[in-house]
Amino acid sequence: MKQRILIIGSGFAGMWAAVGAARLAHLQGSHELEIAVLSPQPELRVRPRFYEANVASLTADLRPLFEALDIRVITGSADRVEPQENQVWYRNAQAEMTSIAYDRLVLAGGSQLHSFGIKGIAEYGFDIDQLETAQRLETHLNALPTQPDSPARNTVVVCGGGFTGIELATELPSRLKALLGAITNTKVVAVERSSVVGGQYSEALREVIRNACDELGVEWRLNTGVEVVDATGVTLQDGSRIDAATVIWTAGVKASSLGESIVAERDAQGRFIVTPELQIPGHSNIYATGDMAHAKTDDLGNTALMTCQHAIQLGKFAGHNVAASLLGVTPLPYRQVNYVTCLDLGAWGAVYTEGWDQQVKLVREEAKKLKIAITNELIYPPKPNRDEAFAAADPLAKFV
After folding, report:
1. Is residue 328 part of a domain?
2. What's the short name of a Pfam family annotated to this entry (predicted)?
3. CB-based contacts of 80: which residues, under 8 Å, 6+ apart?
4. Domain containing residue 54
5. Measuring CA to CA, which residue among 189, 300, 174 is closest to residue 248?
6. pLDDT tens across 344-383, in order?
7. 379 assigned to some structural domain
8. CA end-to-end span of the chain, whole Å?
């Protein structure tokens, strides 16, 4: 009887975990493993691009790839993990609750936006965290021209000045002009608790972001947060008011609550603090990867971020190691020493940095070309060709 590796999630980490496990089984000449992926849809949703228009197109069908690699697809939504019973309960495509057993489990459920209980954000706000919510925002933006011209209609407030907030805020000026007309006085306002724009970044990178925002006309409200969102705008914690028909929340994510029944240490973002092999301590047959894993990238104290850059590599290592644990192969400790940042800055261009100290290497059009290559090609699934897919899934091969 085959031993089952069950992977929950078909995002970047889950997809690559499946391919990585299939790769090692192939290299070992083993036919004794069943590799199964449980997710609501057999597709990769390209979440890093959800700030763009035409969101519905930003998916990739995984069925051809999985069929080529003999990876089983289980369509359903995971409900809970029962580690003592080595099983997962899930709701299948017919909305029926059922269970599946595993010999090894990989948690790759990703993360969700965390709004910190901000009053009114659920009723009146928008976000681009998931495909459905990004589509809801796109529908709203496309309908703005049907509303009467007013400062509120022409104003978008982006709550949060992190990576997603910056990319969205700098994308919106040209998008609003295309929707409302070049002569319309549109406004994009980014709200950030920090005292500086891009406070988590190096000074060199912050300067590029500031210059791009100044040129694009993106306004920043610093040293304050969101107090209340309502039908006509947002009230900030400093007491100021912004009238806006569109308020978008981008601040803060937390790891999926999937696996809450697993007793193990987590970090402030809800990620499991894993071993170098990406196992959850105390649970030798359960691995966490992607946004669900708090993992050291090197020996210098750096930790994987909740980005596709790290999720892809975490997935490859998790897939290799989970298969290795069943095949008697020595596992590989996760390492991802190289770190880069490629931040889209809308019509201004982009900025590319290298290293954890974020040394700026490319700006404007040169960086934009690289950003497009990364987000339109590099992060997409490999072709449904066994040799190409397995070569790409090698955890020791350089990703960027």
Report:
1. yes
2. Pyr_redox_2
3. 88, 89, 258, 260, 261
4. 3-113+253-337+387-392
5. 189
6. 999 999 999 999 999 999 999 999 999 999 999 999 999 9
7. no
8. 39
CATH number of the domain residue 78 falls in: 3.50.50.60
- The structure tokens listed for 122 are 């659920």
Return the closest-CA partner of residue 272 out of 314, 323, 300, 212: 314
Residues 159 and 242 in one domain: yes
pLDDT digits (tens, 9 = 90+) for 301-331: 999 999 999 999 999 999 999 999 999 999 9
Residue 97 half-sphere exposure toward CB, CA atoms < 13 A: 6
**Are 232 and 269 found together in one domain?**
no
- Give me 322's structure tokens: 């989970």
Whether 360 is covered by a domain: the verdict is: no
Cα(296)–Cα(89) distance, rounded to whole angstroms? 30
